[in-house]
Structure formats: structure tokens, C-alpha cells
Amino acid sequence: MKLITAIIKPFKLDDVKSALQAFGITGMTVSEASGFGRQRGHTEVYRGAEYTVDLVPKVRLEVLIEGSDVDAVIDVIVKAASTGSIGDGKVWSTPVDNVVRVRTGERGVDAI
Amino acid sequence: MATRERRELSDVSDRSVVALAESALTKYPAVAGRIAIAAVGGYGRGELSPGSDLDLLVLHDGTIATEILSEFINAFLYPLWNGGRAIDHSVRTRNETRAAAGTDIRVAQGLLDIRFLWGSEALVLTVATDALDDWRKNFKRLWPQVLASISERRERSGELAFLLEPDLKEARGGLRDINTLRAIAKSDAVPVALERLATAESLLINVRDCLHQVSGRHRDQLLFTEQDKVASALKFSDADALLLEVAKSARSVDYVMALTVHRIENSDQGFFARRRKPVLVSKGLYQVNEEIAIASEYELVADPGLGLRAAATAAQRGLPLSIESCIRLADEFVDLPTPWPRQSREDLVALIGAGAFMVNVWEALDQSGLIEKWIPEWGHVRFLPQRNALHRHTVDRHMLETAVRATNLIRQVHRPDLLLVAALFHDLGKGFGDLDHSEYGETLIAPLAIRMGFSESDAQTLAVLVRHHLLLSSVATRRDLDDPLTISYVLSHVDSAETLELLHALSIADGEATGRTAWSGWKAGLVADLVSRCLAAMSGIAPAPQLELTADQIVRSEQGILSLEIAEHEGNYEIEIIAPDQVGLLSAVAGVLSISRFDVRSARTRTLGNSAVMKWIVNLDANSQPPESEALQEILQRALTGEIDLTHRIEERINNYRKRPGIPVAPPVVSVIYDIATSATVLEVRMHDRPGILYTVARAVSRFGVDIRAAIVATLGAEAFDTIYVTDLQGQALTAERAVLLANQIENILLTH
């Protein structure tokens, strides 16, 4: 089992969500995040005063899947989240040892 | 469940308590005649809901050995516990009961409903008599505790009428308040209008019992998930209809509570009296007993603006508006003319601008039906529930909360008045079936604004604000901010930087008032980013334009002679002054008007050649005589030659102003704005209105060694917004560094003076 984590631009969330749904992914966790990578912060000038925006708002999306789908799911996210400009984000996968569905106590792949 | 069924349940419980006590007595016959069991609280009144505790008081005469007493009690209570009933019991002697009631008002209140069940009837009767006597005797001492528990409950559980998932028992206007009112009535301290509570109480109890039944739990909070079930069980058309009835009941409880508290606090028996001499604060309005009241001899017919003026005065001083005044305003209602006079519009803005202090005053007006009379559109959103997981409050309370948040943002916009009005009415279009509330709200606010006397262009701005109050948050989270099309999309709806600034502040206030789920630092960051990108694409904000002079004014200014004329202007006075220019002229004129007890509402001044032309709109404070031109001109003459010490007298006026009660306000902000259309440097001063602002600012500017070319003063409700054009002594704009230094200096002086 794998956990796929994607950091994407906020406005791309709807696109990524529908692309994943179309692919057959039914559950995901979405949270508000902020940070920076190579994009860094940028400097704004507002009414004469300069201020630096050092943390850029992003959306963090997490999906649990069976191992075999990993590359396909990553492709779906990358395709939907891409605008071609800097700050589009990153997607990565990590191995997951075990998963339990709280309500039923099911474990492993059954719990996904 | 109806009252009859609650009585039956109570009777059934009575019978089982008596039976169990009798059987315990057979095991411990020694206690006979020395013990009694009584019901207290709601059970004492003979009404028992399925989820209620059985409140029992075991009274004994103190002569029974502790061991036997506890064994008897166990023998009688265990079967009750085993029967699944939650029991709240206490075991006391008569003296212990008195002592407990003397320190704990909940015990004292519960005892007022004591009812004999079993055992020594005489014991219960003495305790019942004690309870009532002590309650009456000690009421004055216990009152602060009663009041504290009422407000503590309100803090903790909020208001039943305005919460979307309210606690039927603990929230303000709920069942606990009804019990408190019943206890107050028994103290005989003041009359309590209990008859107004009957319908409310039976509805609230029915809803509570039904909630317990459908949820299978004994919790009193009416959650979203249970509302549909309760509504259908009680045969309401839907959950909204149910909540509307709950809200109405809560409001009538709340109203009786407010009236009762007010009567106790102002009781004529010298009981809690702390009367002070009434002080006249505005025409027809007194401050008396820590509230604002209308003078009894004042004729309401001649002054339709009185209601809003009273409300603004009360809210700006952080005081309540007296209930009697509200009732009188409603009974002898005089409608405002259409459009509203300028003063009434400003009073509305000053009322909203009082922030948290506005809420109570607004409530008082609303309960007396005054808000609906002035603003019929409000009727539709009163207590209107919204089935939306993001919201916590009914539509009307959400809008009030938004307005309260908006008062923190008024320094960030050029038109605080429009921000406050838009905040208070932004969801006015909610609750009209499938209509989009923003679109429908736009059609409501535009005519309302015109009726309130706003100009066509202001009404247009308000319409844009209401129509697009969700635009920034939805675009910021759903569209690519790097895409130029996103920016042009926003600009196609919002055409000026002033409006964008307002829309930004409205989005923040609306988001914060909705709750954490709707607004986070993350979302605020995205919206701020969008706004700064849009502002960068706009032409910037133009400062208020300078006064245009008429041909006649130009001719007279060339003569260089001091002249002063006063004319009446829409209930205010218009003063035109032409004077030879000299250093400190503006501060002298501002100072003279201030010590003559005028409040400057707006002013435009401009220097032309060797003269300055000034137009002032002022109103007179309540204690002053109408002005005479000759007298005023003479004072001005003497001030210009230095014969009158203005500083001293203005300080005195500012200090007097400071002595009166006030509300906390945001600190003054002075900013420099860069405008290529003028050769002067433009300073903007935003602050809470008070006497002598322009005098203080103008004096600071003259001392800095720069010239004031023009000044534009606007008062928007309780906010002053002054724009000052300055140049150096050679007539050039200041360097950026000097301009910022000057702005900081003025800001400091305004903070400390």
C-alpha cells in the first residue's frame, strides 16, 4: 500500500479532485498548507510599502492506494495540477505498513 | 410530550418514591417521624420530562444515627438507581439546608419549588417556609450572584435565538432563564411578566423532550442532525420552521429577562439605587443611571431622527438605550422622511461603528420593532436560520457579527461608512427560495441606500459590495493568481481601487464572523495576494479633490479682507470664511469653531493667492446657542492676533470629552498618498471623531514648517477622514522622507493629545 502526497496550487484542487474521481479514487484528505520550494517567497509593493511574502499558500492532498496504481495515480495528479509555471508543487509516494478502518476494524487493503 | 404527560410521569415517580420509602421504613422503623422526602426543582413543580433527573431532598431532624440514616437512604435509593433513573439527591437537616441555600443560588432556587412526597410533612413545610423567607430577605445580597450566573451562561452557551445549533436549556432565552425568572418573581423584588412566558416555555420544553426522545440521549443541544427528526415529530413543516419558533420563544424569554434585570437594577425602593443627576447629552437625550434615555417632556413628533440619534449616542458611549425609551419610540413612532436626512444616516453609521456595543442597542431597537419600521427589509432576515455547516448564527446575527468585525478594519478603507453599512446588510438577500442571495441582495441594497440618503454613486458601490461579497474568496482559492485573466476577471466586476479596498475588508469581516471553518490565515493570505495583484493593475486611489472656487469667491479673495457668513444648511450651519492667508490660519479657524462648540461635519478650504477660501459645515452641540456671524468674526479676529489662547481652551474641551464614557477605538492612522495630479503632498488622517482634530493636525503641520494649501474634512458617522494638501514654503511637494516624517509626527501628536 502506498500513501501519495501532493502539494499543489490551491486553485488546482477542483481539477485534481475530479481527475482522481474519474480515475476511480473515492477518498482523499485535503488540508490547507503553506511553504516554499524553489519558488521561494516574492516581494510585493503595496502603496509604497514593500513586504515579503515568504510562505506561499498551497493545498496538501493525501490519497491511500494499493501499490499497483502508484505511477498511474501520480500521473493523473501531475497532469491535472500542472500549469507549467514555477510553484506548481510536488507529488511523492511513501510505503504504508498497515491501515485500519476505525468503524469496522478491517485491516490492510480491505480498509482502503 | 405535553404537559399532561409530564404530570403523569411525575405522578408515577411520586408513587414509586413513596412505595420504596415505605418498604425501607419497614427495615429501619427507627427513622419514622424524623425524616421526610421532598421533590425540588422541576420535579418539585410536578412536571417531569423523560430525560430529567429526579431531584430529591431527604430532610432529617439530626437525631438519627449516621449509620442508620445512610442505610435507610441506600435501601430506598438503590432500587431507583437500578430502575435506570438518574437521581440528583441531597441529605440535609433544616439548618444545613438553610446554610446551603444561603451560599448557592441554585440550591436556593431549587428549594422554591419544594414539594412534600413522603414522611414528616411538618419538616418539609418548615423548610419550604424558610426557603421562601430567606430568598426574599437575602435577595438583595444574592442578586449579584444571580446576575453573574445569567451572564456567565450567556458567555458560555450563547443566545438561543441566534445559534443554529442551540442549547435549549443553558443558552440565553432558554429553559434555565425561565426558571431564574420564576425564582425572581417569588422574591417579590419587582413584578415579573411571567404570563408572557407560558407559550415560550411549553414550546421549549416540548422541543427539548422530543429531542431527548428522537436522539435517545439526554443532551439539550439541538444539533443539525436531530433538527429534521424533531421538526417532523412535532409536525413542523421543516427544521427552519422549528428553529424560527424556538428563536421567537427565546426572544420573548430574553425580553422579559432584560426588562426584569433592568427593573431590579433601577428599582425605586432605593434597593439597588445609584441614581445620579441626569446629564443632557444631545437634544432631548439624557444620560441617567448609566443609560441613555429620552427626556419625558421631549416632543417626538417634531424630531423623527431622535431614535437613531439616541441609538448612536448610547452605542458610542458604550451604554444601553433605556427600555422605556425604546417602548416610547415604538408607541409614538414617527417615520423618517425619505430620503433620510444626513444626520440620521450618520447616526446609523455611528451606531454600527460602535462595534460590540452596537449589538445590545440594536437588539433593544429590534425587540421594540423599531428596526423593522425603519428598514422593512430587515423583517425577512430576523431570526432566519441558515442550514449551512459553516455558519453558527442566524442570518441577522451573522450580519451584526460581520459589522462588529468590520469596525476593526475601518482604518484600512477610504469610506468606513460604506464598509459598515455593507457589512450590516451583505446577506439581506438570504432566505428567498432559490434566488442567489448575492444577486437578490444587490437589488435590495441599492434602493435601501437611496432611501437612507446615500448618493447614487455610493448606492452603486454598496450594490457592488453586496453583489460580490464572495467574489474575492472564491476567486482567490479557485483561480490561478498568476494568470492575467484572473486579475482582469476581478477588475471587470470591481472597477475602482476604493471599491476593491472595501470589498477586501468586507470579505475579511464576513469570513471572520462566519467562523474558523470559513476563514483561516491561509485563506486570508490568498485573498490578500489577489487584492494586491489587482491593486497593482489599477490606477491607484485618488485623494479627495480640492474645493472649486466660484467667480465671486475669487474676486473676494483678491480683496484680501476677512469676511464670515453663516447660513442654515439642512439642519446644520454652513459657514463661509474668506481670510488673508497667514501661517496658522487653518488651525486658528478650526480652533475658533471648536471653542465655539461647533462640531465640524465637513470642510473644504483652499488657498488662492494671498487669501484662503473656506466652507465649513458644522453642527451645534446640545447646550449651545445658534451662532451670530459678527460675534464669530470677532472671536476669529482676536484668535488670529493671538489675543485668545486657543490651545488652552481646546485642551479643556478635549479633556471634558475624554471624561465622558466612551468605547475603545482604533488608533489614528496618518498616511501619505502619492498623487501625480497635484504638485502638493497629500496626507490622509483617519481617526475616531472628537473635538479639535483639525486644529491639532493643522498646528502640527505649521510647526513642521510646511504650508497647508487645501484641506478636505469629512465626518462619516463617528469617523473623521481628513485630507490635507501640503507644500514646502517654496510651493513644492515634500520629499518622500520628509512626508513620512511629518505623517509620523502627526500620528504621534494625535495619539498623545
Question: Which key features would you list for this structure?
Answer:
heterodimer, A: 112 residues, alpha+beta, four-stranded antiparallel beta sheet, 2 helices, 21% helix, B: alpha+beta, eight-stranded antiparallel beta sheet, four-stranded mixed beta sheet
Which structural category do the helix and sheet elements of chain A fall into? alpha+beta
Q: What's the total helix number of chain A? A: 2
Query: For the CA atoms, what is the radius of gyration of chain B?
Result: 33 Å
Q: From the helix content, strand content and strand pairing of chain B, which structural class follows?
A: alpha+beta
Instruction: Please give the most extensive interface between any two protein chains, plus how many residues each contributes.
Output: A-B, 20 and 21 residues
How many beta strands in the DSSP annotation of chain B?
Answer: 15
Q: Share of helix among residues of chain A?
A: 10-25%
**What best-fitting shape of chain A do the alpha-carbon axes yield?**
globular
Instruction: Give me the side-by-side strand order of the main sheet of chain A.
Output: 2-5-1-6
* Cα shape of chain B: elongated
Report the biggest beta sheet of chain B as strand number plus sense, adding barrel if it closes. Answer: 8 strands, antiparallel
Strand content of chain A: 35-45%
Overall radius of gyration of chain A: 17 Å
* SSE run of chain A: EHEEEEHE
Strand fraction band of chain B? Answer: 5-15%
Q: Order of strands side by side in the largest beta sheet of chain B? A: 8-9-11-10-14-15-13-12
- The overall pLDDT average of chain B reads 88
Distance between the termini of chain A: 9 Å
Largest sheet of chain A: 4 strands, antiparallel
Overall average residue pLDDT of chain A? 84
Low-confidence spans of chain B: none
List the helices and strands and how they pair.
The complex is a heterodimer of chains A (112) and B (753).
Chain A: E1 2-8, H1 13-23, E2 29-35, E3 42-46, E4 49-53, E5 56-65, H2 70-81, E6 89-95
Helix pairs in contact in A: 1-2
Chain B: H1 3-27, E1 35-39, H2 41-44, E2 54-60, H3 66-82, E3 87-92, H4 94-103, H5 105-111, E4 115-119, H6 121-157, H7 175-187, H8 198-215, H9 224-233, H10 239-265, E5 279-282, E6 285-288, E7 291-294, H11 306-316, H12 323-331, H13 342-352, H14 356-367, H15 370-374, H16 378-381, H17 395-406, H18 416-425, H19 437-451, H20 456-467, H21 471-478, H22 484-493, H23 497-514, H24 521-536, H25 551-559, E8 563-569, E9 572-580, H26 585-595, E10 598-608, E11 611-620, H27 629-640, H28 646-659, E12 669-673, E13 681-688, H29 693-703, E14 707-716, E15 719-727, H30 736-752
Parallel strand pairs in B: 2-3
Antiparallel strand pairs in B: 1-2, 1-4, 5-6, 6-7, 8-9, 9-11, 10-11, 10-14, 12-13, 13-15, 14-15
